[in-house]
Amino acid sequence: MRRPIFTVLLxxxxxxxxxxxxxxxxxxxxxxxxxxxxAEEASTEVGLEILRAGGNAVDAAVATALALAVVHPQAGxxxxxxxxxxxxxxxxMSLDFREVAPAAATRDMYLDDEGRPWKDASSIxxxxxxxxxxxxxxxxxxxxxxxxxxxxxxxxxxxxxxEGFVVTTRLYDSLVEEQERLERFPETAAVxxxxxxxxxxxxxMRLSALxxxxxxxxxxxxxxxxxxxxxxxxxxxxxxxxGVLRVSDLQSYEAVWRPxxxxxxxxxxxxxxxxxxxxxxxxAQNLSLLESLGWGELPRFGADRAHLLAEVWRRSYADRFLMxxxxxxxxxxxxLLAPEWLAYRRSTIQRDKxxxxxxxxxxxxxxxAESPDTTHVAVADAVxxxxxLTTTLNYTFGCRLMxxxxxxxxxxxxxxxxxxxxxPNLYGLVQGEANAVRPGHRMLSSMTPILAWRGEEAVALGxxxxxxxxxxxxxxxxxxLVDGDPxxxxxxxxxxxxxxxxxxxxAEADALSxxxxxxxxxxxxxxxxxxxxxxxxxVRMLEDGNFEAAADPRGPGSAGVVDPIQ
Length: 566
Ligand code: DON
Description:
Layout: H1 2-20, E1 29-31, E2 34-38, H2 41-52, H3 57-71, E3 81-88, E4 91-97, H4 134-145, H5 150-163, E5 165-166, H6 169-182, H7 186-192, E6 204-205, H8 208-220, H9 223-226, H10 229-240, H11 247-252, E7 256-258, E8 261-265, E9 268-272, H12 279-292, H13 303-320, H14 333-336, H15 339-347, H16 357-361, E10 375-381, E11 386-392, E12 402-403, E13 408-409, E14 450-454, E15 457-464, H17 469-482, H18 487-492, E16 496-497, E17 505-508, H19 514-522, E18 527-530, E19 535-541, E20 547-550, E21 558-561
Parallel strand pairs: 17-18
Antiparallel strand pairs: 1-20, 2-10, 2-21, 3-4, 3-11, 4-7, 5-6, 8-9, 9-14, 10-11, 12-13, 14-15, 15-19, 16-17, 19-20
Helix pairs in contact: 1-19, 2-3, 3-4, 3-5, 5-8, 12-13, 12-15, 12-17, 13-19
């Protein structure tokens, strides 16, 4: 009964989107001296400026991330966290600067006396904030791999904050959309809603408190934010609105260097972030399974490929239920990528019939071998060093509380824990005990910063979009590595998404033809329209030594190269 309605809706939506998105894609950019892609033009410019000034990929990525903390306060941050995977001088490394639960956090802190989620405590206000990881993380990344002096890396962001930057339509729109929640905090409203409304598009925004924070950060490193007056201001602002963040939490925060998750698929080598980021494992499982299922040989358009995508995603997101901080995760990447486990998962996939997510959820089989568990920046420099860095406050403007003296927002990353185990979070993800709130633990993430290379060719990519990030990254990689799309086309192509629960295959409006929807429905898939897919940023080094950069028109974002070919 559902099928004809969906088919009609999809066709209508496809028509609408086709007309709305004409010309939405960015022109491809290509150059010889490196490349940067990020969410905003001003931040991409900063990355390019650092490359031109002789900085390496890490210098440029950190400077870009700091610029995002100024011009893209919806996600760019000092009050959040993230992950980075780097290839520097042929060394692969990944840095986990994910937030952790404060020492005073408890398993049931977001539940009322009857065990029900307690209003929006895990998403709005400072009780939703994890201990920020960015101040330590960005510094640590630069300390280990950067070439230019730290204050030089900070300079562009400081200038943007003190001299001002232009309010974009996107920033204005985000402020309008979030106005009601931002208004709950007078500290936030004083800066971002002067006279009770967002600053006008095109007006110049100066953030003097943030400029002072960046100055202190430039002079003293992360200690300027993790102890002393700024840390005390964070504790004060948090406590004033019922939060539990303490200076001691900030002081004890540590970023962790982890071996990247390395794997191969379709003739390419890849390096991703391991737990507590789930995205790398999901993409590794997806690509390994699809390769062994002969996905690349199937017709590019049509139901067969979409069916298999849905089936492998369904299984990987079911595995995600068992993931969490490496200390509490019930599974790890080794077990989840073990040939036996992948073979078992493959053996349960039928080519002509959709599985039911509910069946997969039960885990009738013993779990795999256990041990005992958004904004994106992509940079390549002229000598082929690569950085893929995703950083986030979680939701737009995080918990919406801006610490007045510090000048930045606190995250609401605590919602990425299974704040109410068994119930969907902001991204509809149903998560398990392994990801319950535990003090000092990192909340499971879907972020998927990843590098892929074959010979001299290499790509660095990642995205924003919560649970939709891993499926978007898997598809962009498939477009690039299997179908040989140019970078921008691979990012632009309409996408699909399935995350186990809810048991629906989501399709961007022009991703599937009505006939394909019919065919998928007849195999048992429920197909739904999806307008909110992830936003991917990517850079690529080509065999001829040139570079490409691509930002997602869904973002929008900004891509640039050094020395464009005339
Ligand atoms: O770590 C995660 O999975 C989420 N906090 C990411 C948030 C995100 O991508 C927001 N973008 N829409």
